[in-house]
Amino acid sequence: MGIESIVLRNDLQELERLAAFIQGLSGSLGMDEKSLFQINLVCDELVTNIILYGYPSAQQGMHTIRLDVGQTADGWELCLSDQGIPFNPLLKSSPRTDLSIEERGIGGLGIHFVRQVMDELRYERLNEENVLLMRKNRIHEEGVS
């Protein structure tokens, strides 16, 4: 399995490099357009959260965030790691989508989206790093084998 990697600074301007990197995965890792779109949104959401909340604001651009993406027999595995404050996004409770925006409050929908789109999520704190392991299964079109 080949692995593609990118290391980003904790700076919102790096989101453009992230999007270009993920776009390039369609060729090197055989990603279909729908999976590519979903993975791009998931990574953009997670990396944005790390940049905005993972480090003190005075430390913008001083830390790195690493994304490794590899192809598996049935899809792709992603590993997102950073040395920010310990945070397990999987412990965040799901938002009450049955409530109005005013009743629900701000936040939580991004992680909810990540849970809905990815097929498997695992968080670990290893060597002073947040490590989020994700798996996305290949989408099989109906009537196509």
Q: Which properties best describe this structure?
A:
145 residues; alpha+beta; globular
Give a structural overview.
With 145 residues, the protein is of the alpha+beta class. It has four helices and five strands. It has helices at residues 15-28, 33-53, 101-104, 109-117, and strands at residues 3-9, 64-72, 75-82, 120-126, 129-137. The protein has a five-stranded antiparallel sheet, covered by helices on one side. Helix 1 (15-28) runs antiparallel to helix 2 and helix 2 runs antiparallel to helix 4 (109-117). The chain is globular and about 45 Å long.
**Low-confidence segments, ≥5 residues, pLDDT <50?**
none
What characterizes the major β-sheet?
Answer: 5 strands, antiparallel
As a whole number of angstroms, the C-alpha radius of gyration is 16 Å
End-to-end distance: 22 Å
Tell me the overall shape. Answer: globular
The total beta strand count reads 5
- Helix content, binned percent: 25-40%
Total of helices: 4
Estimate the strand proportion.
25-35%
Structural class call reads: alpha+beta
Topology:
Layout: E1 3-9, H1 15-28, H2 33-53, E2 64-72, E3 75-82, H3 101-104, H4 109-117, E4 120-126, E5 129-137
Antiparallel strand pairs: 1-2, 2-3, 3-5, 4-5
